[in-house]
Design goal:
Radius of gyration: 27 Å
Organism: Subtercola lobariae
Domain WYL: 162-225
Biased composition (Basic and acidic residues): 341-353
Domain WCX: 260-326
Number of domains: 3
Structural class: alpha+beta
Order of helices and strands: EHEHHEEHHHEEEEEHEHEEHEHH
Shape: globular
Protein name: WYL domain-containing protein
Number of helices: 11
Helix content: 25-40%
Strand order of the largest sheet: 1-9-5-6-7-8
Number of strands: 13
């Protein structure tokens, strides 16, 4: 049902909430009380009611404590000396020394250089506005930070440009419009969608929503969205609380169902990389069986290995890889001003023949 535009704070992902909790507990040498955590840490403070009922939020915190402990994080509980047995003023912290690397782990000079280069991808002061606000609130409570927490946030972004506007529209429950290019189409078509969830599957982001043109649920690959995502002022209501689980289950079902068989050159880059794909199976004859969700994306990947891969099945995947290799060869054979001809042509024809073999 379509209603007027809705508003509200964007939901905080579980991963971000747990990450913020760990950072806050690392930053405080004396630890934080439950009230300080719930009222200041990103993911809790948005739901915290000062002087009100926070029972559900406290239960969430108890579950989060179990989750980070299962991840191997050494969360400690400190009991006040003068209030033994009282849970009201318990303090929680993560001792820095207990969360350091084990003493028997060391790095060579080359490894340290690589780690230093990786550290350049992180910048101080890059936390979100909400996280900065939480740190200021902690300081106002007299909690001193012993760690440069702001330096933990990454600068590199691996999400598609459509990610932020889609998650924003999802939080506001408003329709979006975007141009979407389906495989095989020559031009994109505009879609109007009520976004229900944004999920990651096999390293790629998807949005599941109700396509308003057909009034049915559809899942769209974010990398196929062309141009900007436009957020409308038209809101919608949805009772589908399991949308993310539904989208992931459907994508995983497609992944399980679709299989490809390929021969790879021994000790090649293709063999190394394809063997590491989730669900890859190597037969006795060294042939690999791969699962995939999107035939065209797999064709792009396999074509990139050139003569190191030969597609056995399915035939449509073999044809898709062949077309990509033929396009690559044709692109490199396109005459350019000042290019030499004659003696080079037989060699180029030989390259074309070799390039077509894998497909």
């Amino acid at each position: 049902m379509v209603t007027t535009e809705s508003s509200g704070a964007a939901p905080v992902a579980v991963e971000e909430r747990l990450f913020s909790l760990v950072l806050a507990l690392l930053a405080s040498e004396a630890g934080l009380t439950k009230n300080e955590i719930l009222s200041t840490v990103q993911g809790y403070r948005q739901k915290y009611v000062f002087g009100g009922d926070n029972a559900s939020l406290e239960r969430q915190f108890e579950r989060d404590k179990d989750d980070i402990r299962e991840l191997g994080v050494p969360l400690e509980t400190i009991e006040p000396l003068d209030e033994a047995g009282s849970n009201h003023h318990l303090r929680y912290r993560i001792p820095k020394g207990a969360y350091d690397l084990p003493a028997d782990i060391s790095f060579s000079s080359d490894e340290i250089a690589l780690l230093n280069l990786a550290a350049l991808a992180w910048r101080e002061g890059s936390l979100s506005r909400e996280s900065r606000h939480a740190l200021l609130k902690l300081q106002s409570l007299g909690v001193d930070s012993i760690e440069p927490v702001l330096g933990y946030a990454p600068r590199i972004r691996t999400r598609e440009a459509a990610f932020d506007p889609l998650t924003d529209a999802l939080a506001r429950r408003v329709l979006v419009r975007f141009a979407y290019l389906k495989p095989g189409d020559l031009s994109p078509r505009e879609r109007t969608v009520a976004p229900l969830s944004v999920v990651q599957h096999e390293g790629r982001w998807h949005v599941r929503g109700i396509d308003q043109n057909v009034n049915e649920p559809r899942t769209f690959l974010l990398s196929r969205i062309i141009g900007p995502v436009t957020r409308t002022r038209i809101s919608f209501e949805s009772t589908d609380d399991q949308s993310a689980e539904t989208a992931l289950a459907q994508l995983d079902e497609i992944w399980q169902r679709n299989r490809a068989e390929v021969d790879v050159r021994a000790n090649s880059d293709a063999e190394t990389r394809l063997l590491k794909r989730r669900g890859s199976i190597r037969a006795a004859d060294a042939r690999l069986t791969l699962h995939f969700t999107d035939l065209h994306l797999l064709a792009d990947e396999l074509a990139g290995f050139g003569p190191e891969v030969f597609v056995v099945s399915p035939p449509e995947l073999r044809d898709a890889v062949r077309k990509r290799l033929e396009l690559t060869v044709a692109t490199h054979l396109t005459p350019t001003p000042g290019r030499q001809t004659g003696r080079d042509e037989p060699h180029e024809r030989k390259e074309q023949s070799n390039a077509e073999e894998p497909a």
